[in-house]
Each structure stands twice: as structure tokens, then as C-alpha cells.
TrEMBL record:
Recorded GO MF terms: copper ion binding; electron transfer activity
Protein name per the record: Blue (type 1) copper domain-containing protein
Pfam families linked to this entry: Copper-bind (PF00127)
Keyword Metal-binding: yes
Record CDD domains: Cupredoxin_like_1
InterPro entries on file: BlueCu_1, Cu-binding_ET, Cu_oxidase_CS, Cupredoxin, Cupredoxin-like_Cyanobacteria
Keyword Metal-binding listed: yes
Entry keyword set: Copper, Metal-binding
Domain Blue (type 1) copper: 52-159
Organism (species): Planktothrix tepida PCC 9214
Amino acid sequence: MIKFNFDFKLLFKQIFVGLGLLLILILELNSIEIQPAFAAVDLSRQPATEVTVSLSNESGELKFFPDHFQFEAGKPYKLILKNPSPGKHYFTAKDFADMSWTQKVESGKLEVKGAIHDLELKPGGEATWVFVPIRTGTYSLRCSIPGHTEAGMKGEIIITENS
Ligand SMILES: [Cu+2]
């Protein structure tokens, strides 16, 4: 009777230890992270090619300088936008922006992340747009202030294939 009681206790103890080990195994399995197979290239760490564009000029001409841009898909660019004119202007290139990945837009102490459709630059304003073009094509650029596109404040952005 006593012997049976002892065996029962031992069995109980073994079950208890077994359950403990099983619990540890489950926790170990849960802590295994599945790493994505991509992300071999971190585009945000590659040096960006700098391109400067002027929205109008000191005399207020309604043009972009330059007004033609060519970017390669998959390469990072840093577009520096300046407005040296006495009036406000926009860099509006919605389709181009939709076909690009924007890392960030910086202006003074402000930094914006996410989708960009147009950038407003006040007189003397400056902004930096860091992006990676994605899809090849020809996209239009314009200043969306009424009358400015018609007056010639427009341009073209071409995204070419990665060479
Ligand atoms: Cu304008």
C-alpha cells in the first residue's frame, strides 16, 4: 500500500517534469522569427544622386530650371528644390510621385515621410526630396498655381530602366 503510494508520487513528478519541458519547447518555438528572404539591398543606405531644380528665378519667370529630368529606376535621388522668385510655386508631379518610393521630404527642421503629390515652395523656400523611382515612363511636371502651367511652368520627368 505504501509502495503503491510512492510509485504514484514518482509518476506524478515525472508527468510534471515532462509537461514543464513541453512548455519550454513551445515557448522556444514561438520565439523563432521568420526572416524575409528579400531586403538584400537597402536602398535607403545607398548614396543618393543630387539634382537641383529651381522653381522660377529671381526675375519671376514662369519656368522650371531645368524643366527636363531623367532618373533611373531603382536608384536613389536627392532632389533639391529652390524657389528664388518673389512668388509662391508648386512642384506638382503626381503620377511621377505615385511611381516612386519617397524616403523623405525635408524642409528646414521639418521632415515628412509618406506619399508626396506636390510640394509648395514659398518665396526663398527650399526643400529636399529623397526618393527612388520605380516604374519607367514619361511623367509631367507642372506648377499648379492657376495660370502658371499655361505660362510655361511645366516640364517632363522620364524614368528609364536601370542600367
Ligand atoms: Cu508657379
